[in-house]
Amino acid sequence: MTPRMGAICLFASLGLATPAIAEMVALTGANVVDLDGKPAIQNAVVLIDGERIKAIGPAATTQIPAGTRSIPLDGKWLIPGLMNMHVHLALNLPGAARVYNEGKDSVALRMLDNAQKSLRSGVTTIRLTGAQDGVDFTVKKMIDSGTFDGPRIHTAGSSIVATGGHGSTEVNGPAEFSRAVREQVKRGATWIKLGISGGISDTHGEIAASPFTDDELKTAIEVAHRNGVKVTGHNGSPLAAEAAIDAGIDGFEHGYFLTPPVLTKMKQKGVWLVPTIVVSQQGAKEFYRKIGSPDWYLARVDSVGKAHWETLRNAIRIGTPIALGSDQYPWEPNEGTTATIREAELYVDAGMTPLQSLRAATIEPARMLGVDKEVGLLKPGYLADIVAVDGDPTTDIRALRTISFVMKGGKPIVGRPAKD
Questions:
Q1: Are 412 and 50 spatial neighbours (Cβ–Cβ below 8 Å)?
Q2: Spatial contact of 95 and 120, defined as CB atoms under 8 Å apart
Q3: CA distance 76 to 62
Q4: Model confidence over 342-388: pLDDT tens digits?
């Protein structure tokens, strides 16, 4: 065994990320999907130099430099790494499986385990929409440093709410909201999440309630924007939506009861919807049974399911900007696949084309995050976050169920090793 191989084996045995080694890699024999609707590049070569894509083209005209390591993916279809914009890596819902009085060490380990499972499932970028005690910032730093494998993380830190609302950091009045936003930005939040309406997992209040005052909402959004940070709102309330759009909010999570007029206004203002449709539909019932969800929680899920579905259908019909998010762990089983992939399939069931759904899972989230010049497409200069599937997902979104290769930043995570 060479010293290099020994070091890789040691890192693997400890569950750590292997050291990044800058080298040229070629993915060969696969078809590269075009997210603009153009024909795929058949029998392509994807040249990767370190973390980034150097060139993409047909094998007949794309030269592979001497010394390049090759990964044959004959007959596969290559797409950008999937993105999931509504994730809680330490999800802790009501039920028999709920963890009480959990310490930071336990939260960190659960988050890291779920991050690694998410990456192996083909999700290379996530946005955290509410975490505990600042642990999300620590996990992000450990992944960014290469100490552990995991997806690229954008995080909103702790969600901010009016006292009694749906979230973690409870405050009251414009001054307290201002301070709470600044605290999350200081810790490293790249988004701010406001709980501007009730939630399914609340034991009190109405899901469509709107507990913020206008001054609280306007102040929180203004302070975030002045710090260069976008704002999303946990929301199922049309009333809360109208006020938040007028205050300049950037997006909504769930949107359980949003109406066509609100969705139209969102389209006009460029406000994003992250639907998380899987959490209110039949496929999530298996998950809820597994964690022992109480009857009152299941009843709340059922009560919003039909309205939530109509919101999604209307949003697709109207053309409201949509970025995929699941609210379940990205890798969590859901109707024979993962929650991320099932979310994409449901978008097609609700009216999207397969191409639109694939875009909602790749380039549209990148646009929402403002990183669409780095990830979300397979193009020279972009980070080599790449997934391989057995068929063309632009004609059948269920091809996403066949993920067999995952690469993040030029490093194979799942699939075939490179050959000299």
A1: no
A2: no
A3: 18
A4: 999 999 999 999 999 999 999 999 999 999 999 999 999 999 999 99
Of 288, 297, 127, 284, nearest to 207 (Cα)? 297
Q: What is the fold of 82-369? A: TIM Barrel (3.20.20)
Within the chain, which residue ranges are assigned CATH 2.30.40.10?
Answer: 22-80+378-414
CA–CA separation, 202 vs 254, rounded Å? 15
Reduce the secondary structure of 106-169 to three states and give it as a string.
HHHHHHHHHHHHHHHCCEEEEEECCCCCCHHHHHHHHHHCCCCCCCEEEECCCCEEECCCCCCE
Average predicted confidence (pLDDT) for the chain: 91
* CATH class as words, domain 22-80+378-414: mainly beta
- Asked whether the beta carbons of 326 and 278 are under 8 A apart, the reply is yes
Confidence of residue 12 (pLDDT cuts 50, 70, 90): very low
Place of tokens 């790749």: 362
pLDDT digits 0-9 by tens, 254-291: 999 999 999 999 999 999 999 999 999 989 888 888 88
pLDDT tens digit sequence for 343-353: 999 999 999 99
Q: Is the per-residue pLDDT at 15 higher than 80?
A: no
> From the CB of residue 226, how many other CB atoms can be counted at a distance below 10 Å?
12
Residues in contact with 243: Cβ distance below 8 Å, sequence separation at least 6, in sequence order: 196, 210, 212, 214, 217
CATH 3.20.20.140 domain residues, the chain:
82-369
